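ZP: hey, is the heme C complex queued? I don't see it on the tracker
AM: it wasn't, my bad. submitting now with these inputs:
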Amino acid sequence: MGHNSVGQGIGVSGSMSNRGWTILLIGAILLTGCRRPAQVKRASRPNGDSGQTELALSGEVVDGVRVVPVRAFSFDWAPNPVVIVAAESVKLVVRSDDTTHGIVIPDLEINEKLLPGQPVEIEFIAPEPGAYDFFCSVVCGWGHNSMTGYLLVLEEDGTGELGMAQPMPLREKPPQRQFVKDYRFEDLVPHLDWPDGSRSFESGQKLFVEMTCSKCHSMEGSDNLGGPNLARADLKLSRAELLREILEPSKRIDDKYRPWTFIADGRAIVGIILEHSDQHYLVQENLGEASAPIKIMSDDLEEEPSPAELSLMPAQLLSAMSIAEIQDLLAYVLAKGDPRHESYQGNTSGE
Ligand code: HEC
Ligand SMILES: [Cu+2]
């Protein structure tokens, strides 16, 4: 493969012009845990090896700045990884295609909310070569936990050649479930009659984490995650009521958890009021991902705050589960995380 064909090969990704080295990635290691084998891939000169993954630089350079359009959608990013060169000026133009997401790049101290259809421009100087994780800061649905991505920063060796000095593990995305169905209440009501002793505690416990519930709800007796504590003694929901709460979170919202919309400094902030005085409001915008509450001074308000209709709990959290899994999750919440609950014991006295 000569220079020209390399140049053409990467031409699809934008104007790479004379920096046209294809990045070839080779090698493999096993990562531990539940991940599938991930590949360690090494950037090297293009050498005509076939069957290698090719990575191209992202976006294009305009007036000395690498401008990269990045799409956020349920539940991934494109491009992913975002490939840039160390020390260059970068502008990410990040936009959400569907619902509200957010982008956090912890190492670069970047944290921006992404409202649908409102692109956000993020400018920075590319850091040292390496891989920098980013993820979604808004718990946006059942696949939120797999909405991860990373910046791959390449190094330039002085001759214009790009690559990584050290073999570079390419991150693999956490495995993602398959969408099953946007269940309606009527679809699931006929499946609420499971007999005692029939449900799996382990499965329910695992789903409570996997489906993001544990990001906002504690089963250990506290409210400190932002959403109501689901193990509290005075919470008594029937199976059908619980199902309704999960499928239609906005239908009934306790005043304490009602989000309010604030318009201040030309921007809209939607969140739960943690604290309120004559002078200010303290508002929690995102639940379930670390983010500091926002202090809004009453004097800065451009309008009276208004109650929002949408709960901060995402809808359609059950859409990637089988009926049996939904039963396990409901049983786990009804059992308040207690493995001694009837749902797990072999007696047959119905609930
Ligand atoms: C992003 C945060 C968030 C996530 C994720 C989340 N919830 Fe919620 N949940 C809330 C908030 C806030 C409320 C209170 C407002 C409301 O009712 O919508 C709530 C309310 C509830 C209630 C009613 C509790 C009560 O006191 O009446 C139940 C039950 C519930 N959630 C279960 C779940 C389950 C099960 C999951 C996972 C499938 C889940 N939630 C995921 C934030 C969340
Ligand atoms: Cu998200």
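AM: back. Residues 255-307 form a domain with the SH3 type barrels. fold (CATH 2.30.30).
ZP: great, adding it to the tracker
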